[in-house]
Amino acid sequence: MDYKKIKASHEAITRDLSEFDKGTGNIYETVVVLGKRANQISSALRQELVNKISEFSAQIVSGEGIDEIYENREQIEIARYYEQLSKPSLIATQELLDGTLCFKRPEKEDSLEQSL
C-alpha cells in the first residue's frame, strides 16, 4: 500500500470515539489494532527510507589523514520528504476511518478476517 497517497492530516485532531469502536465493539481493542498498524507503517516507511538513502553512496574524501563523509543533496531532500509525511499513527487512524484497515483475531476461529 502506498502510504504517501493516504490523505491523513499532519496534526492530531479531536475525533468522536464512537466511530472507532464500530468494527471491534471495544475501544481498547481498536487502540491496540491502531498501534500495531502504526508500527507496521513506521517500519515499512523506515525501511523504504533506508533503501533510498543507501542508493546514494557517501562520498569519502581523504584529506590529511581524516576521512570526511559528505551527504548528497538528494539524500537531504529525500529525508526532508519523509519528515513531511503524516505520522504513522495518523495514517493508521485514517485507514480505520476509511474502512481499509483489516485485522485478524487469533482467539476467534469462526471469523478469520474482519474489516473495520
TrEMBL record:
InterPro entries: Pol_omega/Rpo6/RPB6. GO terms for molecular function: DNA binding; DNA-directed RNA polymerase activity. The keyword Transcription applies. It comes from the Bacteria. One of its GO terms (cellular component) is DNA-directed RNA polymerase complex. GO terms for biological process: DNA-templated transcription. Keywords: DNA-directed RNA polymerase, Transcription. The keyword Zinc does not apply. This is DNA-directed RNA polymerase subunit omega.
